Request: fold
Amino acid sequence: MFLTLDLNSEIPIYTQIRNQVVMAIAKQELKEGDFLPSVRQMAADLGVNLHTINKAYNILKQEGFLTVHRRKGVVINPTDKYKAEKEYYKNLKEQLEIITSEAVCRGLNSEEINKIIVDIIKDLNNNERGRENEC
Amino acid sequence: MNVNTFVIFNYLFLVFIFTITFTMMPYIMKRTISFGIRIPESEYNNYKIKKIRNRYRNIIITLGAIFILLIPITSNYLNLINNNIDIVYTAIIISLLTIYFAVYLISYYSMKKVKSNSNWIINSDKVTIDTTFRKRRLAVSKWWFVIYAIIILITIFVTIRIYDKLPNQLPTHFNISGNADMWTVKSIAVWYIPISQISNLLIMLFVYFIIIKSKQEINTNDPVNSSRNSAKYRYILSICIVFSGLLLQVGFLANQLYIIGILTSKLWIDVMPLLYSSTVIILVIFIIYKIGQGGWKIGTQNKNGTNEIDRDDDKYWKLGIFYFNLNDPSVFVEKRFGIGWTINTARPQSWFMLIGFIIIIIFLGTM
Reply:
């Protein structure tokens, strides 16, 4: 996968890394058993501090997306390791509540909001299919 | 043939190589970097930038011609002070490099001015990496260095076998007609070449390590192609390094065999330097025309570049060539004006390595 950071962005770098890894997993660019560069390697290639990468990997580890082996390196987990549980549904609802509220304030109705989400999921799947055609 | 012909040949070779590489440098670099300054790709043919490039090229070519003409003028005079001819020519080469660097600096400041007077859009500072980059084939197999080791072992083995039969004094320096003009006691003389061979092996291993380990350089606007080209670039450079190094090792071996009298024909001694220098010239020209810094000339190129600058990193490049970035943990990064890699001067490891390198070179030079 390609990972692009904007060093001038207001979003912290570790959050950018975390988000892009999650998006890559959703698009199936990253699959179970795929490796990511070591903390040191990734920090050097991106030109950012070691702690930043460490932080991003630790968050992804806590969320169950990857495992950091001392020897083997950083590996993407099987899907059941990060499957949605009760706790996640609660979190998701909370986050969507804020986003949806803002959209409603700005005059979007439920149909428009639904369409956006459906489109996003369609894009994710398209990407997946495109990848299979490549192979 | 004059005794100094060999020195003059060396001098001509160096002037030629330096002039060609300096002249071609702006055309080797990526179209997004001009004299150490980042520009939008679409501005590459902007008339102001073109003017700076042409001026730079004309000055370097003129200077190169002057330095080449210096030879017939100085050679007669230098014959009088025969012993110092090496020193004189080394001084001339150093002044040549200093002058060329000054010409670069003038262009760098002109470019800087053009950029500050422009209205180019710098709306982000993006950096892209390929997480699978290190899985690509970045260099030839490291087993090639076993051949180096074998050549060195042969050299040492043959030397030890014949050591007792050798005369007390051995020739250690030859002029162009193959006559020895310097003799050294054998206990020291036989080790000159094995030590040079081992240093060569260590330097080549070091360069090989840099090729594999150095920082990724991927164009955010074209990640797929630039990742592939960057890997190919490293691979091709590793072939050039391993091959030219092997040629040098064989040359060293032939030289040693000649010194200890096993090889009586001096054909090899004559042929190897010529073979080596012509190989280097061919490889340099090949890299200039077909590869480009970072491999951007490999394959098909996207002609219509963007008019945006996606990287805002001029501040880390002092004078456009010295990289100083405290936030960046990497030690080796791609050069901005030249072929290959340079060091991140903000890292202490870089300085240790640089000092180590200088010590080795001084050690070999005084040997």
